[in-house]
Amino acid sequence: MHMTPTSWKRLAARGGHFGIVAAFTAFCTFPFYWMLITTFKDIHDLINTANNPFLFNIAPTLDNLRVLLFDTQFVRWMLNTLGVGVAVVLVTLLLAVPAGYSLARLSGRWGRQLAIGIFLTYLIPPTILFIPFSRIIGALGLQDSLWSLVLVYPSFTVPFCTWLMMGFFKAVPRDIEEAAMMDGLSRFGAFLKVAVPVSSAGILTVVIFTLTLVMQEFIYALTFITSSSQYTVSVGVPTFLVRGDVYFWGSLMGACLIVSVPIAVLYNFFVDRFVAGFTVGTVK
């Protein structure tokens, strides 16, 4: 079969495209493969430098998961993290969504300055704030309580999510809300029944961003929580599975795998809406 130069170019373009996608896929999936194989590797297989680190040189074992699930309070830490995450998501949505809408509809110089000021508060490093926050938590009697994290985490989720929702609400035409108000809805009714459903991508972005941040935050959780039963997963796992210079690599990778896979699946299912939220709807 004779191929024209155009056909060769088209075939080369497809081959290049496939190669780039394959390389990117391998790059993204390799950490999960590494966590998976390390989770089920025998300790003697892990510490022997002569063995191939990418393959099972000794029969796989469940001992690493046994240590993680039965010798630590990993399940309790996961439930703590989930409880804090749900509470912080609710607080963030209740504050950031109406605040973002208000700033989006506030015209003039003051609206822009307020928006910039709110976003700048998100840029303050947590290492600067955890000392004054400790004083506040102590005065409220919330030491060693998960409620301390529910109180503190919105301080850096609300500013960013407010700025994010403000940009998204600006992409919603005002004509839609005005038409709804002409049909008898109040301003709040138009916001609740028109603006919020149209901005579902932005709201989903807020939920995913907040949950991810709660699961990975370390400084505040380490500072405010002292009892192991109250730890979140980001503090409990390194505290109990890193003992001096001894690293329980198999159990550590098992914890990372259990925590990261649901988040990866969540991102994968809602990637279009998530990207649309961060780009303020411009990809629609």
TrEMBL record:
Source organism per UniProt: Paraherbaspirillum soli
InterPro entries (UniProt xref): BP-dep_ABC_trans_perm, MetI-like, MetI-like_sf
ABC transmembrane type-1 domain residues: 78-270
Keywords: Cell membrane, Membrane, Transmembrane, Transmembrane helix, Transport
PROSITE patterns per UniProt: ABC_TM1
Location, primary (coarse class): membrane
Subcellular location as annotated: Cell membrane
Membrane-spanning segments: 12-36, 77-102, 114-134, 146-169, 190-212, 248-270
Pfam families the record matches: BPD_transp_1 (PF00528)
Protein known as: Carbohydrate ABC transporter permease
Record membrane topology: Multi-pass membrane protein
Record-stated family: Belongs to the binding-protein-dependent transport system permease family.
